[in-house]
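User: I'm preparing a small set of examples for a lab meeting where we compare how different chains pack in three dimensions. I only have the primary sequence for this one, and I'd like the structure in token form so I can line it up with the others. Please keep the answer compact; I'll paste it straight into my notes.
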Amino acid sequence: MINRVILVILDSVGIGALPDADKFGDIGVNTLGNISNNQNGINLPNLQKLGLGNIDNIVGVKSVNSPLGSFGKSLEVSNGKDTTTGHWEIAGLHLEKPFQTFPKGFPKEIINELENKTGRKILGNKPASGTVIIEELGREHMNTGNIIVYTSADSVLQIAAHEEVIPLDELYTICETAREIMKGDNAVARIISRPFVGSPGDFTRTSNRRDFSLDPAGETMLDIAKKEGLDVIAVGKIEDIYNGKGITEAVHTKNNMDGVNQTINYINKENKGIIFTNLVDFDSKYGHRRDPKGYKEALEEFDSRVPELLDNMKDDDIIIFTADHGNDPTYKGSDHTREYIPIVMYGKHIKQNINIGVRNSFADIAATICDVLQIPSTVKGESFKNLIVK
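Assistant: Understood. Below is the structure token output for the 390-residue chain.
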């Protein structure tokens, strides 16, 4: 019997362009494949043993004859390629209407309302890279106390502030105010606080980021698991993505390795249900910044920790490694990319060398998790339990 599922999201680790990727402006994207091509291969021996290389032809991640796990990949049904859309679909929701984006910045009435309600003027108000805009406007922000507001190709409103100029509690309150404003016709998926420290020419973003999301647009597998009395433990930004809905315990993390450490910590505790981890560095530090070398090194660093995750698992655990979208660091721009996600599964109850093929929705993951935990399923998705469980 399976009593616990460890679900690890390798944020943005896509595995090739979806059939409709051209409609999203993404031609020939493949996060894993193009990193490997760009960097003369990639060394992921532990994920390779589980079957990652059997999903697709990735330079440096070979197919093996007898992978230790089950494997496959999935299409995305929802209309989007952002964090929230991907995670919500993994948890059993389909979004037909994409979240609102603001490619020219936010309308004057929104800016005016935010200024009036926070008592602080706004700098920026344009799409930008977070590290670039704090270098551009950080000095003025420090001199004036005005807040830096910016967006991206994602459905986000981001607020950057120096921790010595605007204390974290005030920054979070400002973000909560923005969350109230950015609802209804102006709804964005997330308001993100972006605190930083340092001096002009040497600013650094800190790990005190927080995301203020909309409530999920329906019941997710997390809600169902919680209602059924199971633990739903959120590691990293998972709690923020679901706005705390369906979560029984949460810990925020500083980086990928902290995320792995916290996941192992929870594996070694007495809990039953779902441990749900997001490892965000792949996306935030390397995908958006178009850094294939850094991305490759982060993947290899994570792969070196995979044996620890597996060795700490109990006999009634299974682990699923997957992603939420792509973010090909070799592609133009700085946006996410519309891609298949890999699915690699392992555990004493998981069959070896089983190819689950191409799934029709990320929600198949939710349906399968509900099925193996023997709880009611979400409406969306088709379980592949019968393919993978011994």
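A couple of notes for your slides: The CA atoms of residues 78 and 95 lie 5 Å apart. The chain has two domains: 4-95+217-388, 108-212.

User: Perfect, thanks.
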